[in-house]
Model the fold of this input.
Amino acid sequence: MKIYKLLLICFSFLIIACAEVDFDSGGGPQLTCVNCNDGSELGFIDGLSLIRHTVKLTQTQTKVKSDILFVIDNSGSMSTEHKNLTARFSTFISSIKDLNWRVCITTTDFLNDDGKLYHFSDGNTWLDAGDNQANEKFLEVIQTISNQDKNGRGDERGIYSINRVLERKQSCLRDDATLTTIVLSDENEGSDGTGSKGNPMVEKDEPESIINNIKSNYPQKLAKYSHHSLVIKSGDENCKKEQASQTFNNNKVPAYYGTFYEELSQLSGGTVGTVCSNDYGAQLKIIGAVIRANTIGKVQLLCSPLTKNKEPITNASHLIYNAEIRPIIKSLMVSNEASFQISDPNTDYAELDIVYYCLDEPSTE
Done:
């Protein structure tokens, strides 16, 4: 297998953004000049800032670890949805079969479960890609959740529960894995989004708190995190009516749009699906596709990238510093995000040095 190691400018993180700087004898910052592959010189250019990123790529996706947390609404109105989820769990794990995945489960019940992970029949709090009984074990735990006494479990706090899982740093989560969270619920955070069940909303209920928590406890996961929501989508009145028509103990149950979960999906580049589908297969496949995409090297560009001549860079491959490696890298740029993947089956590993310029901010002086 070939291994390419390109010019590294930043620390050895998965994806790192920095401006390369040196210091003169007076201590002032100056951009370091290095020779480009085409013989031109990178460095200080009036009105532009030089930006560099390092991206590490692996060819074999089975080397890429992916941790997936399911957060299940265990209130009295969810038995049908639990069945729909377990019926298609095998579809989901098939969609990520090339990854070194790990699945764990908690519930939206912050009063009784408080983000604690459920144990599977083998005693572990996770399923992994090497478990031939993963589908059966997942079904058993969801059935356990579905059969619980539902009294006091109607105040759904999925975001709070994710926060508690992250804070505890439980064994399901690996330091060197990507992170995905999936909430299945027919209500909002705090049931209606206000904490109307008598328990006031707190900071841990806010979508942004998840991003902040990952920054604090798992900073290496942030660039590879996505949240996915299977909820009543905003404006879907038919779904809301359908869920509100269900009964528990002969009483109709409330149903609310999952706006908090939708916001977390938007913040993290995840998806929003409908809890009202009778078949979750297609939605779970889409989630699987996003998880796989998160194993690709991605760079959030700090601006609309420019060449040293202030011309727009529209082809992602032109961001790669070393021209000789470009033919073996599949590149894509959408808006200000660039993605890179090894396309040569004989290349096992590559480190890319991504280089571009940004316009300087106008002086306020």
The first strand starts at residue 2 and ends at 5. The domain at 65-293 is CATH 3.40.50.410 (Rossmann fold).
